[in-house]
Design goal:
37% of the residues lie in helices and 19% in strands. It is of the alpha/beta class and 338 residues long. 45% of the residues are buried.
Length: 338
């Protein structure tokens, strides 16, 4: 089975210098390594060419973001499995084999992730994926090992292979055939939430998503949104609403969007109370742009939606976390996933 590791880069020379040697040495002889460059203005490309001639380079003519960059790079690439790997990820020995073996043995599994631990505190799960992602009935994401901003210490409590709702875009294994059949990521998202949308659409087509924790990587990404960058707040709120609009069954669409209008308003008030005026404005902007996308026809619903995937948590994780004090994945009654 042909495996291609694709690292999307934008002005990330320092990260490439730090992590590419390990990716090359620990990925086995059978995996091809590709850097897809989002029109970097630093010395990323010359650096790779001079120091890692075995690494293939795809040069994109402008910064297309995470979604557009991967779409452009992967759509014409030949492989059985794509591994989408962030440039700030440290891999470990034998990280590819367990995941690929699981996909070989389970033809209905189209997307997988390894266990993601935090690079800076290596005994903790990492925010953007931990040991597998889920969403609740209102579209709030959480993970085995991460509830909102609470990170658990990895004690092996989530080491079992399990079907999940979404796999982290920081390190995602996906069958190339499925990626192309789905049309790749929704590039109107630009960045943030596109991997959850992709996993949702894959499940609507009958595919499964899984986590294989015997494969371990360390992600440098922060444990919370960068508060000095309201752009991230805007993209997360806008894209979460867009994902819900696209993929919810018709009967749930209006109740969920109305609930989110109220809850996102409360989030905006909380930002003001914390002195984050720009983040509050980002939430308001996200809602206006979301509604504008609907009325303009730019945002289209996925066809053939009849029900929620079985991996959706049927309760409100926001209530469980803030009102009932469920700070860990293991505190939830996961039998509420159908």
């Amino acid at each position: 089975m042909k495996v291609t590791v694709v690292i999307l880069n934008w002005n990330g020379k320092e990260l490439l210098e730090r992590f590419i040697p390990g990716i090359i040495s620990k990925s086995g002889n059978g995996a091809r390594i590709v850097v897809a460059d989002n029109d970097s203005t630093d010395d990323s490309i010359p650096f790779i060419q001079q120091n890692f001639p075995s690494v293939n380079i795809i040069k994109l003519d402008k910064n297309l973001g995470y979604a557009g960059g991967y779409n452009k790079a992967l759509m014409e690439m030949d492989s059985d499995i794509f591994v989408l790997l962030n440039s700030d990820v440290e891999v470990t020995e034998n990280w590819i084999t367990p995941v690929v073996d699981h996909m070989k043995q389970n033809n209905d599994v189209a997307i997988c992730q390894p266990k993601l631990l935090w690079y800076h505190e290596r005994d903790k799960f990492e925010y953007a994926g931990a040991s597998g992602g889920f969403i609740d009935k209102l579209g709030y994401p959480f993970c085995r090992g991460r509830m909102f901003n609470t990170l658990e210490v990895d004690k092996g409590q989530y080491n079992n292979v399990q079907d999940i709702f979404w796999a982290s875009g920081a390190c995602m294994f996906i069958r190339s055939k499925v990626f192309k059949e789905l049309g790749g990521f929704d590039d109107t998202f630009f960045a943030h939430m596109e991997e959850i949308d992709l996993c949702w659409r894959a499940q609507l087509k009958g595919h499964k998503v899984a986590v294989v924790p015997s494969s371990v990587v360390y992600h440098m990404g922060g444990a919370t949104l960068n508060k000095i960058n309201p752009r991230k707040t805007y993209l997360n709120f806008r894209n979460n609403l867009s994902m819900l609009y696209k993929n919810l069954p018709a009967g749930r669409l209006l109740p969920v969007i109305f609930s989110r209008l109220i809850l996102d308003g409360i989030a905006g008030i909380k930002f003001i109370a914390e002195g984050d005026i720009k983040d509050c404005l980002a939430v308001i902007k996200a809602h206006f742009h979301f509604y504008g996308r609907i009325f303009s026809g730019r945002l289209k619903r996925t066809k053939g939606i009849s029900a929620l995937p079985d991996t959706v948590y049927r309760k409100c994780v926001l209530w469980e976390y803030f009102a009932k004090g469920s700070k860990k994945y293991s505190d939830l009654k996961m039998d509420d996933i159908k």
